Amino acid sequence: MTIDSIGSAAPARTAERPQFGAETAALQQAGRAPATALETAAAVKGPAPTPTLEQVTHAVSELNKSSQAKSQGLEFSIDQDSKRTVVKVIDQTTKEVLRQIPSPEALEIAKSLGSTKGLLIKQTA
Fold first, then answer.
1. Quick count: other Cβ atoms within 10 Å of Cβ 119?
2. Which pLDDT score, from 0 to 100, does residue 101 have?
3. Cβ atoms 121, 113 nearer than 8 A
4. Cα torsion at 85, 86, 89, 94 (round to 10°)?
5. Alpha helix (H) residue ranges in the chain
């Protein structure tokens, strides 16, 4: 790295980048070509598929069955009113809830805001 003074008339340098990096070489060895710019842009702009309630419920039950979640004292559930995923950290000895994300208060606020939709802002375009 060199430091040029502001007043010097040195020509601007161009950044040197290798045409094929380690990632490209690894993809070529695996038999895959790197994604084109259009494929990358489409993947970023495309909407993410929204899971159904059944898929989320199944994922939550699988997480609860895992031995790592049990040993760490984690419990996953879905709030029936807001349909949000809830994670609880539970003390293994006392079975007391140490932390809940989102908190019960936040779930109540979300529930009350959901039922008063349109009452908070009365403005038409």
1. 8
2. 94
3. no
4. -130
5. 22-29, 37-45, 53-65, 67-72, 104-115
Residues linked to residue 88 through DSSP beta bridges, in sequence order: 75, 100
Q: What is the pLDDT of residue 105?
A: 92
Beta bridge partners of 77: 86
The count of C-alpha atoms lying within 13 angstroms of the C-alpha of 55, restricted to the half-sphere facing its C-beta, is 4
The residues, ordered by sequence, that sit 6+ positions from 2 with a Cβ below 8 Å of its Cβ are: none
Q: For the sheet containing 97-101, what is the strand order?
A: 74-78, 85-90, 97-101
Q: Are 101 and 86 in contact (CB under 8 A)?
A: yes
Q: What is the pLDDT of residues 83-102, one digit of tens each?
A: 888 999 998 888 899 999 99
Q: Two tokens at 61?
A: 């039950």
- For 8-62, what is each residue's pLDDT tens digit? 555 555 555 555 555 555 555 666 777 787 777 777 776 778 888 888 888 888 8
3 state SS of 5: coil
Element (H, E) at 86: strand 85-90
